[in-house]
């Protein structure tokens, strides 16, 4: 999830998330001190983002859905799904390292990134968007079905996709998407839906970009990258790409039931220091999955795993996917 000033729409109900998790008191984000200048970046990042993806659109229920694609279409498919108010470019420095072995795509869910806005949104529609991108990217052509990897809110969508369409998938991976017990139910803050601010300069807009839930950010070059792609130029300056009305009359549904109904392999990743998916919630999800699906902890990561520990995340995903390619599932699906 990402927080862009007080323009952030109400976060969809996340079982166990408390409203104070989504409260930001400071007026400036981690990029404010940079005054609009990109921070220095390591060689691995520069080489990764130099591998430019293809850009495609596919129509789903009347809206044009944008996605990016890397790698050989003949290889097994991986679909990467972003979090709340985010976009496909959160994967720009992850996808190229996975594309060596996979046909990788990163989606912009409707109302976010470069996809079209809708009059109304639903989890079922987001799930159809995931499957449509897999189809358009050629992921159902190879013998091996695709895997969908979703972060945060994108993980909740992917839980539903696994429940509805899991027979067509090799597996799903949830990155810090908490499914909490009933006694920890929570909800979004009560925020009015209002138009985005327009900032006079790019630097002014970048200074207001913050991560949600709030956390420290050591890899500012990664935060700067995703922040720049969160913005669009309009009359009078710059504003955020996501639709501020997405979560009006929106229900995330019973994620626990959907998790149990997953019809393919599934794995859960959590950040070691995540405030949304602490160890006890990982244990709860492990039990929901019959104690036969991996719950993988990424050391020194918070909620935004790909920003905190991108290389550790890639290594863990490679290990998981390699194992899935060379083992027999033990969990009943």
Helix content: 25-40%
Strand order of the largest sheet: 2-3-5-4-6-7-11-12
Question: H/E series, N to C?
Answer: EHEEEHEHEHEHEHEEHEHEHH
Q: DSSP helix count?
A: 10
**What's the shape?**
globular
Largest sheet: 8 strands, mixed
Low-confidence stretches: 1-26
Gyration radius (Cα, Å) is: 18 Å
Overall average residue pLDDT? 89
Strand content: 15-25%
> How far apart, in Å, are the first and last alpha carbons?
30 Å
Number of strands: 12
Structural class: alpha/beta
Structure description:
- By secondary structure, this protein is an alpha/beta fold.
- It is built from 10 helices and 12 strands.
- The strands form 3 sheets. The protein has an 8-stranded mixed beta sheet, sandwiched between helices.
- The model is unreliable at 1-26 (pLDDT under 50).
